[in-house]
Every structure is written in C-alpha cells, then in structure tokens.
Amino acid sequence: MNVVEEIRKAAYQIDPIYTQRWSPRSFQDKEIPDDVLRSLFEAARWAPSAANVQPWRFVFARTAEDRERFHAFIDESNVVWCQKAPVLVAVISKTDEERFNGANPTHAFDTGAAWGYLALEATRKGLIAHGMGGFDRQKAKEVLGIPENYFVNVIVAIGYQGEIELLDEAYRDREKPSDRKPQESFVFEGLFDEE
C-alpha cells in the first residue's frame, strides 16, 4: 500500500482517480509533451457550465521566459517550489455575460469545474497539478494583459512528480497527501445544519 492509499480512504465506492489526485510541490526537470499538455485543456473544455457559457480561460507558460513572467506575480513562498514546474497556468474566468444581462453569477463555480476536470486528467496522465492562491491578482492581470471583466482564480503548477529531496527542506514535511473532512461535516439533508 502506498502513502496515498494509507491516508486517503473513500467512505463510499468511487473511482480511485479521486483519492489519487493530490497537490505535491516537488517537480522533475522534465518537459510535458504538447499533446499531453493539450489533453488537459481538452478535458477542461468538457466541463459543465451554466447556460453552456464556458467562462473559463487559461493562459499557460512553458518557456523559461514565460515562466519568469509568472514568477513576477506569484508569492515568493510559492516561487521557491513552483519554479521547477515545467508549466504554469493562470485559471481565469469571465465575470460578465450578455445572456445574463450583466454579471455572470456562476463564473467562478463553472471555472472551478473546468479546473477539476483538468486536475483529474493530469492525474490520469501521470502528472501532478498544484493550484495556488498565493499570488498578486492585479499584477497577474497587468503582466498577462487580462481585461478588467476577467478574474484570475488560481495559478496551477503542472509537471511530473519529483523526489522529496528536490524540495527545499522547509517544504518536505508538507509533501504528503491530505485527508478530507467526513461527509457529515458538509452534507445536510433538508436544511442547512452547520453547528
């Protein structure tokens, strides 16, 4: 039994892809073939969205120059480990929609579904995808040329998992999959009942 199976045990029968997906920080120095990378975005393409608006947008960086551009707005504590990732992706959502007469109230929800599809496809392809919220959103918009009516939700580091020894020592203790809260803490029947 590997460390993921020791820590992550589903309470009900589900496909193992859900428990196998987690967010390591250690990356190998290995490029992702273009067809494999594009397959992640293809999976995201098929996510559900309200009124089929598909508000998600992705800007990815795989050249050294483009990754350096991303490092300019990512928090230093994240750059320490994500600088070794061969691909960085900004996950963006369009906040307005003509069909909704203004704001799109589900832009982040729908884009989250697309990110979930991308993350699961990455796991299926033997990759890791680590989403991070530690970055300057306004600076990201400026650096990447993103218009005001778009929101930068997260930055994702994607690549092949590396050995723990490749990580800065400060991050090694955290390089393990996490468990999840039990359903009873977030699923309620009939009425909301969080104590």
Q: How would you sum up this structure, described in words?
A:
With 195 residues, the protein is of the alpha+beta class. The protein has a single domain (23-173), classed as NADH Oxidase (3-Layer(aba) Sandwich). The protein is built from eight helices and six strands; from the N terminus they run αααβααβββαβαβα. The protein has helices spanning 3-7, 17-20, 34-45, 64-71, 76-82, 107-124, 137-144, 169-172, and strands at 56-61, 87-94, 96-97, 102-103, 128-132, 150-159. The strands form two sheets. The chain has a four-stranded antiparallel beta sheet, sandwiched between helices. A two-stranded antiparallel ribbon has the order 3-4. A hairpin with a 4-residue loop joins strand 3 and strand 4. Helix 3 runs antiparallel to helix 6 (107-124). The chain is globular and about 50 Å long. The N and C termini lie far apart (36 Å).
